[in-house]
Every structure is written in C-alpha cells, then in structure tokens.
C-alpha cells in the first residue's frame, strides 16, 4: 500500500467510521498496527516489540479498527454488476449476466509443526486454501480464507455457500464452463 492510499484509508476511517486517536496513539498508528497484523499474521508479542506498545493496547486498538471496518462494509465493499449482453471486453462477452469469476488458490503459510499435515497440499507445500470471487473490474467481491491446504476446492465452496453471510449464488446465473474451454483459462 502506498502512502497516498494509506492516508485516504485513515481519513475515511476517521471521517466516516468514527475512528478516533487517543492521547497516546493517533489514527495512523492504529491503522498501521492493524494492517501489519492482518498482512503478516504475526503474534501480539511481535507487534509489541515492533511498535513499542503493550499487548493490551494493541489488542484494544485492533478491535476498534475491526469494528470500524465492519461498520463501513457498505462503503468499502461494492456490489458487483452483471455483465451486459453488449459487453465488448473479449474476456467477459461470453458470460452474459455473470457477476464475476470464482477461483481457489493456495497461499503458502507458516503453521505449528503439529498442524503441518493438514495444511500440506498435494504438491507437498504448506498452504491455506483460499476461495475468491472478483468482479469484471478485477475487484474482490468475496474472499474465504483459512481452510487447510489439503481441503478439496468443492469442500471450500460448499462451506462458502452454506455460511450464514457467505457466498450467494443465484441459480439462474450458473454457467457450464465446459462449453467455453478456450475462454475459461483467462480467469
């Protein structure tokens, strides 16, 4: 994330989300700590050392940050628009009324030794299985992470569909990708 994006995010969280600085920690530091925790999946103790703050302070500000992000979900997340019949983008013109593309990927992770067998993929890497959907503008509209690497894609998809606030798939918009093998590789 560049400085301009970081500044815009901080301003949005302040003005629209109500995130406030405290006597000892400004909003930009709260956001930096929270983004570092999310991006690097490190322990509280690591953040304590890096930012010279107590564990309780980090935990409290991270919770405030998450509450503001959840409060702003309608602002931060966009609803996808279906692909029109007159689409001129060669990658999408065959998929009339589709909302986007759905795919799974494996992301390498570090896990405790006792959990490694569950996270080992069929290629022998330690990874987590992530399901993501994106709109035609290449913006993520849904992400489900946390499944162990050994989990089958169909199991992850079934979990995403059956969650209370999970992935919603309209039965009228399903596509048989076997009809379009040449175009499926674009995604």
Describe this structure as you would to a colleague.
This protein has 187 residues and is of the alpha+beta class. It has two domains: 74 residues, no CATH class; 84 residues, no CATH class. The protein contains eight helices and three strands, in the order H-H-H-H-H-E-H-E-E-H-H. Strand 2 and strand 3 form a beta hairpin. Helix 2 packs across helix 4. The C terminus is likely disordered. Its main location: nucleus. Belongs to the HARBI1 family. GO terms for molecular function: hydrolase activity; metal ion binding; nuclease activity.
Summarize the structure.
By secondary structure, the chain is α+β, with helices and mostly antiparallel strands. Helix content is 40%, strand content 13%.
Specify the number of helices: 8
Structural class: alpha+beta
Helix content: 25-40%
The succession of helices and strands, N to C, reads HHHHHEHEEHH
Any low-confidence stretches, pLDDT <50, length ≥5?
171-187
How are the strands of the biggest sheet laid out side by side? 1-2-3
Which SSEs are present, and which pair or pack?
Layout: H1 3-15, H2 27-40, H3 44-51, H4 55-71, H5 73-76, E1 101-108, H6 116-119, E2 127-134, E3 140-148, H7 153-162, H8 181-184
Helix pairs in contact: 2-4
Keywords:
about 190 residues; three-stranded antiparallel sheet; alpha+beta; 8 helices; disordered C terminus
